[in-house]
Amino acid sequence: MTITTMAARGTVVFPENFIWGAATASYQIEGAVKEEGRGQSIWDTFSHTPGKVFEGHTGDVACDHYHRYRDDVALMKELNLGAYRFSVAWPRVQPDGQGAVNPAGLAFYDRLVDELLEHEIDPYVTLYHWDLPQALEDRGGWTDRDTAYRFADYARAVYDKLGDRVRNWATLNEPWVSAFLGYGNGVHAPGRTAASDSFRASHHLLLAHGLAAQALRAQGAEQIMLVVNASPVMTPAQVHDPAAEASEADAEAVRRIDALLQGQFLEPALRGRYPEEVLRARSAEGGLDHILDGDLETINQPIDLIGINYYNPTVVEAGPGIPADAAWPGSQDVRFSPADAPTTAMGWPIVPSGLSRLLVRLSQDYPEVGLMITENGAAFDDVVVDGRVHDPGRQSYLEGHLGAVHNAIQQGADVRGYLVWSLLDNFEWAFGYDKRFGIVHVDYESLVRTPKDSALWYKQVIGANGW
Fold first, then answer.
1. 111 to each of 108, 162, 263, how far by Cα in Å?
2. Catalytic pick among 137, 277, 285, 375
3. CATH number of 336's domain
4. pTM surpassing 0.85?
5. Where is the signal peptide (predicted)?
């Protein structure tokens, strides 16, 4: 079968040293949750709680990457990947989240890094992708300030083992999701539902980032990033026309939600301050006593990259009288609206131009740091025929968004690379195994991996550095 593209070959060419790769996360692919001293994480607890995850699915086995990593790395090489972003499972390294490290747990990542380097694939390590040790959650989790200090200790331990070979380090993945879906509306682990808890958690996550960045830099880390779920915030009319005028009420809704999503994390990390809209929302939901003197200076550490996880825009307009969404404390009088666009199997609107707008804006707002697409991808219902996996929707999605990245670079955005989400179909959090984001199909009974059409297309793109 010939893999075709929607653009003439040679019309899209990326910079010479552009980084091409894929991303995964520990709980979503590793399995082996009770092997070699691994402790329990909040996602082990959450997924085993009836009613929390689709049809009772868990990450107990997932893709069994823990035992099959060598085959997976060989597959990465076959697909021309030059970079692989993976996360370290904190409870595999420190079963209780503190104290002595588990040598067997660290040894797994030691082997994985060596395997990647042997195949000339650059490892990108994410220290926290949501699998907090349950023992720390039992003491308060991210609402407890001490968790930030335990995270810095954990970061030191991982760097001690891998830092001689790993150049690229991300502290946190999507702290907005950890805080506001985990502690605000409860659809993610640990499943708490208090606005005040979500704000405390978000601040302590940022403090953890700052403390870990200090520790990593002191130990010699070459490149440090913070990974955020970024999204352009716009009115319905602006989805297809960025210049469309907005009423003052709609414009205020856009500013407030943008501050709660982007500004709440990027402004403290890169400017050492919270936006006024965020401080007002925090004050209204439990006060500011969790922000101590010196915290913002600690959070505001020099970093090299912002990791951008982009899936779709956030569309809002004024909604007088509408109460705040549980995931968005401070969003009262705001209506979250659907975008006029096709959708993925998740129901997420497909708006590639939103990625261009986001990247250009972030490069203008924060010119001192580079940008990297650390996640971008989509769930679709794939079709398996005669051993081949056809996913034209995903291939079209990726081509459209890579075109948007190229467009942003042409406009001056400092984008260093692109990591597709995800390498493998995997445990998709509360959706279990019902939604597939992988460019590689995983048969969850046999665990056989089969590259989809999108993977074969992506391999060609990487080989040509464009299309």
1. 5, 10, 38
2. 375
3. 3.20.20.80
4. yes
5. none
Catalytic pick among 30, 174, 267, 285: 174
428 marked as binding residue: yes
- Report d(CA 209, CA 188) in Å as an integer: 20
The domain containing residue 137 runs over which residues?
19-464
Residue 429 assigned to a binding site: yes
Rounded Cα–Cα distance for residues 12 and 410 (Å): 10
Question: Is 54 within a domain?
Answer: yes
- Known binder of ligand: residue 421? yes
What average pLDDT does this structure show over 130-139? 98
pLDDT tier at 238 (50, 70, 90 boundaries)? very high
Tens-digit pLDDT profile for residues 80-106: 999 999 999 999 999 999 999 999 999
Query: Which residues lie closer than 8 Å to 214 by C-beta, 6 or more apart?
Result: 152, 298, 301
Does the annotation place 28 within a ligand binding site?
yes
Pairwise CA distance, residues 362 & 243, whole Å: 18
Give the Cβ contact number of residue 157 at 10 Å. Answer: 19
User: Catalytic: 174?
Assistant: yes
